[in-house]
Amino acid sequence: MIDTQIRRWLRPLFGRRQGGRRTPESFRPRSTSSRVSRLAVQYDVEVDAALQRLWPKARIYHDREFTRDRADFLLVVRGRGVMIETKVKSDPGLFRGSTLPPLLDRLQRDGRRLVVLLNQGDPAPARDLISTKLGDKGCVIVWSGPQHDPDLRQAVETLLHQTTRHA
Questions:
Q1: Which domain holds residue 66?
Q2: Phi-psi category of residue 73: left, alpha or beta, with phi > 0 → left and psi -120 to 50 → alpha
Q3: Is the pTM of this model over 0.85?
Q4: Torsion 133-135-136-140 (CA) sign
Q5: In total, how many domains does the chain have?
Q6: How far apart (Å, rounded) are the C-alpha atoms in residues 91 and 35?
Q7: More confident call, 3 vs 156
Q8: In the list 45, 57, 106, 121, which could disulfide-bond 95, CB 3.0-4.6 Å?
Q9: What is the DSSP letter of 32?
Q10: Separation CA 138–CA 113 (nearest Å)
Q11: What residues form DSSP beta bridges with 59?
């Protein structure tokens, strides 16, 4: 009994768990799970490739820092910009958009356009949230690969044709 208690007390001090080192909190993926983090990284790579494929002459800026109030991508086509936020769900359920309000508040102040790309699920609740905050300056689409490129192109081009210009 005493040995078990000592082992439990000493294990955190020496930073060892069963079979490996503990990872400092700052190095852990900043997401709900490591599986979702890996999916999110892969999804961002696929979205970047799709943006380059659909708009080869556009400038694409990718925000590498994790923040809730900035979009993952800025796509600038013909002098007009559209922010693109990627969201990854590990299950095909509803996407409520609970992580979107800081970004929506910032974009509402800045007057920017936003396309939220969701890998799977039903985006109806998030669409309501975005239409409440941004009106016709934002939309949510499900994009899971090249088969959904026409939806992505239509969503971005619709926002680009609005009158406000962004550099």
A1: 34-160
A2: beta
A3: no
A4: positive
A5: 1
A6: 12
A7: 156
A8: 121
A9: S
A10: 6
A11: 76
